[in-house]
From TrEMBL:
EC number(s) per entry: 3.4.21.-
Protein name: SpoIVB peptidase
Top class in the EC scheme: hydrolase
Domain PDZ: 148-204
Record carries keyword rRNA-binding: no
Originating organism: Anaerofustis stercorihominis DSM 17244
Boundaries of every Peptidase S55 domain copy: 194-424
Example of a GO MF term: hydrolase activity
Matching SUPFAM superfamilies: PDZ domain-like, Trypsin-like serine proteases
Length: 424
């Protein structure tokens, strides 16, 4: 074989390797996501050619009623069933040899949930003291200083320890600083889920002779929102459909403890173009008005345990994103002190999602009464459950600033994991 032929053979061999590698990469990145409910047989279309087989390595997932490792596919559809929620993988092979597709079968718990729509108050204490603003100090020598800024503290940092002693609020931070006076101290701060230790020396302020580091901190928050739903079996609730963030730094406020409380609506600021509206209310102060305790504040809402029976409508089945239709639906929300009511909306668009997202569907308020009283979606309505064809499909999360008749909703499946999780 001459050099030219050898070169051609080598190039052909390398090309074949590249084609095979590209095909393997394609399979890895072209995995199809399928969502189903547990304890329910669901027919799914795989879009496969003839002479294909399915490989199943999951004992908890049945395909066509059987728990076997390999199945011949006679037509384009298979039936899948699992009694428990989880993530399962299937592989499709042509002639039982050539891989042609991968499938993730995402099984969500088939639960009934009580939609609420109740306007509630939120009172929450943070886990640590959040740095929200620097403040220069005039010390006893008439120097203008800011030890916190000089030491490298940033806005949004959470102070969790001072010299190995845990601090949970602003009062404890101030107390520890004055105990240690002018001595250099070690301060543990939490920044973007990572703890760092900072060395800092407080200074005595000329104004009041107290030791300070030159930073304002926040340790609590209160407001109004909407209770989305609760699960009676686990006595767990979810509210808001999005996180509570610090108004100055934008960070998600970490929960030490808090409550969802009965509230009273006192007024409505109607939403207008480029001027968001608002439900204004007051939190009731009696212990008997506490509805539940808050344990988690994340991107998708507030979660916690129900401590008081909540009067709501009957429990509803849920529907996953592939069952939601563009068109008529309703939201359950509160616009007076007579309790939650259903109002008409239209689902303008749904988005195929494989990861949690608070902007799952585009919605538009069409109900004449709701438009007349609120102008559409207003602050405080976030968390209002969305219902279609008698099933709970999600919750309101955002309003368009430029058009308050429109906003976003989140799919109910993105709320289930934390709603049904066992609280430690």
């Amino acid at each position: 074989m001459n050099a030219v032929k050898k070169k051609r053979v080598l190039l052909g061999f390398l090309s074949l390797i590249l084609i095979i590698s590209a095909y393997i990469l394609y399979l890895n990145f072209s995995t199809k996501e399928i969502t189903v409910l547990s304890s329910q047989t669901t027919s799914v279309s795989l879009n496969l050619p003839k002479n294909c087989s399915i490989q199943n390595e999951n004992e908890d997932l049945k395909v066509n009623g059987k728990s076997e490792k390999n199945y011949n596919v006679d037509n384009d559809k298979i039936d899948v069933y699992s009694s428990s929620a989880g993530k399962y993988k299937l592989k499709a092979k042509l002639f039982g040899i050539v891989p042609i597709n991968n499938y993730n079968i995402n099984v969500y718990p088939n639960v009934k949930l009580h939609p609420s729509g109740k306007l509630v108050g939120v009172s929450m204490n943070t886990k640590g003291a959040i740095a929200v603003q620097f403040q220069s100090i005039i010390d006893v020598n008439d120097n203008e200083v800011c030890p916190a800024k000089d030491a490298g503290i940033k806005m949004g940092d959470i102070i969790v320890k001072i010299n190995d002693k845990k601090v949970y609020n602003a009062k404890e931070v101030i107390s520890e600083l004055n105990k240690l006076s002018h001595k250099e101290l070690s301060m543990v701060i939490k920044r973007e889920n990572t703890e760092e230790t900072i060395k800092i020396t407080p200074v005595k302020a000329k104004k009041d002779n107290k030791y300070k580091i030159g930073v304002w901190v926040r340790d609590s928050v209160a407001g109004i929102g909407t209770l989305t739903c609760y699960n009676e079996d686990k006595s767990r609730f979810v509210a808001l459909g999005h996180s509570i963030n610090d108004v100055d730094t934008g960070i998600i406020m970490p929960v030490k403890n808090g409550n969802v409380i009965e509230s009273e609506l006192i007024s409505i600021v109607k939403g207008k173009r480029n001027a968001p509206g608002e439900l204004r209310g007051v939190l009731k102060a009696d212990k008997k008005d506490i509805i539940g305790s808050i344990h988690l504040n994340n991107d998708y809402g507030l979660y916690g345990d129900v401590t008081k029976k909540v009067a709501t409508s009957n429990a509803l089945d849920i529907a996953l994103q592939d069952k939601i239709k563009e068109g008529k639906a309703q939201i359950l929300t509160t616009i007076d002190n007579n309790g939650p009511r259903l109002f008409d909306i239209k689902i303008k668009k749904t988005y195929k999602q494989t990861k949690k997202n608070t902007k799952s569907m585009l919605i538009e308020v069409t109900d004449k009464e709701l438009l007349s009283k609120t102008g559409g979606i207003v602050q405080g309505m976030s968390g209002s459950p969305i219902i279609q064809d008698g099933k709970l499909i999600g919750a309101v999360t955002h309003v368009f600033i430029s058009d308050p008749t429109k906003g976003y909703g989140i799919y109910i499946e993105w709320l289930l994991e934390d709603l049904l999780a066992k609280q430690n």
